[in-house]
Specification:
alpha+beta, binds zinc ion
Length: 131
C-alpha cells in the first residue's frame, strides 16, 4: 500500500488528486488492474467528478453547505457534525480501473480529495492491484 499526505487550506475544499494517483500507477508499472483510494478520516472523503470546469466542485461544496449547515442543533460536542455527515455522504474510498498502465477515467472525471473539517494534514492511502 502507498500513501501521501495533503495539507488542506480551508474548512471545506475539494482537491484534485488525479495527477498524484496517476503518477503512482505509472511508477508501479502495473498494466491491468485496479486502484483503490481510501482516506482514513471521519471528516474527509474521496469522490469522482468534473474538474474541467472548477465551478463544478464549487457548486458541489455550495450545495452541501446548504443541505448540511455548519450549525444545525447537532448533538456531537466536538462541533463538527456537518463534516461527519458530508464525509459519510461522499464516502471514504473510490476504485478506478487500470488499463494499459493508466487510470481509466472518463474525459471529464477527476479524483477529488474532499476536506470537510480543515485546515488539516490528511493522509490518502492508495492500493494498486494487478490482475
Ligand atoms: Zn467530530
Amino acid at each position: 500500500m502507498r500513501s501521501f499526505t495533503i495539507k488542506t487550506q480551508s474548512r471545506c475544499e475539494m482537491i484534485d488528486i488525479t495527477g498524484r494517483v496517476a503518477e503512482m500507477v505509472r511508477e508501479s508499472a502495473i498494466r491491468e488492474g485496479s486502484c483503490r483510494v481510501f482516506v482514513p478520516h471521519t471528516t474527509a472523503a474521496v469522490t469522482i467528478n468534473e474538474n474541467a470546469d472548477p465551478d463544478v466542485p464549487r457548486d458541489l461544496l455550495a450545495v452541501l453547505e446548504r443541505l448540511i449547515p455548519f450549525s444545525n442543533g447537532y448533538r456531537h460536542t466536538e462541533g463538527n457534525s456537518a463534516a461527519h455527515v458530508k464525509a459519510s455522504l461522499f464516502g471514504p474510498s473510490q476504485t478506478v480501473f487500470i488499463e494499459e498502465g493508466r487510470l481509466v477515467l472518463g474525459t471529464w472525471q477527476s479524483l477529488f480529495f474532499c476536506e470537510f473539517d480543515g485546515p488539516r494534514t490528511r493522509k490518502v492511502l492508495v492500493q494498486l492491484t494487478a490482475g
